[in-house]
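Field log, afternoon session.

UNIT: design team B
ACTIVITY: writing a sequence onto a fixed backbone
BACKBONE:
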């Protein structure tokens, strides 16, 4: 289905949503993105609900607003080679699923604030500014050890103290979209190392980041962890 036909179908479905369910949804947008699932091969993220808070916390006028995105590229990837793919059914299921996410966000203000804080910390990371090194843990949980902050996917790689001391220059394996990959760490590994990974297939919509970190001990109560960032190319494991 062409994108413009998909958009027309989505507009019709929006009109069928009960008005009380649409309250607080500021936008429902179709994108061209193809968003591969970070763990499962052949699975793509079809839609997302991105919450935002308007107004200062605690203000009576503070309200939650959400934007919903349906990714035409992901639908097309799933439909490719599947003549029985039901575009209308899958689109309606995805749209109503994301609306349910919006309603759940509205019922949990604390989770919303944590998500917004994670997004702000991720912007600081990208801009080279100071940030909370564990912000990614407040992102959307995709799978065990895998979280997502907007389009960026974070794979948590905690290491015990002994393993962390031996980590410099070694290969770290990880899974992406059903395949095994690895990156070789630099010769110096700080307490928390954000490794932005390239050359994986399929490419993520945003950044794929391995967070290689030393598990904290009691001494960490007395000092700040040393944080670093590098960019590395991944290679497949076993060809």
């Amino acid at each position: 289905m062409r994108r413009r036909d998909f958009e027309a179908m989505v507009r019709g479905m929006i009109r069928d949503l009960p008005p009380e369910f649409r309250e607080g949804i500021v936008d429902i947008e179709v994108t061209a993105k193809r968003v591969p699932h970070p763990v499962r091969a052949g699975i793509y993220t079809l839609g997302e609900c991105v919450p935002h808070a308007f107004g200062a916390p605690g203000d009576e006028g503070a309200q939650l607003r959400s934007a919903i995105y349906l990714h035409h590229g992901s639908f097309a990837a799933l439909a490719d080679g599947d003549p029985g793919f039901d575009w209308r059914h899958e689109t309606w299921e995805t749209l109503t699923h994301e609306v349910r996410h919006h309603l759940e966000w509205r019922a949990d203000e604390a989770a919303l604030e944590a998500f917004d804080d994670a997004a702000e910390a991720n912007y600081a990371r990208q801009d080279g500014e100071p940030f909370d090194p564990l912000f990614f843990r407040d992102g959307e949980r995709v799978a065990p050890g895998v979280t997502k902050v907007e389009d960026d996917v974070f794979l948590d790689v905690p290491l015990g103290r002994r393993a962390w001391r031996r980590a410099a220059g070694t290969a770290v394996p990880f899974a992406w979209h059903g395949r095994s990959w690895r990156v070789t760490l630099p010769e110096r590994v700080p307490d928390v190392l954000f490794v932005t990974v390239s050359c994986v297939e399929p490419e993520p919509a945003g950044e794929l980041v391995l967070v290689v970190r030393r598990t904290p001990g009691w001494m960490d109560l007395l000092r700040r962890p040393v944080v670093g960032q590098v960019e590395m190319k991944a290679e497949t494991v076993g060809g």
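LOG NOTE: The CA atoms of residues 147 and 183 lie 19 Å apart.
NEXT ACTIVITY: expression trials, pending approval
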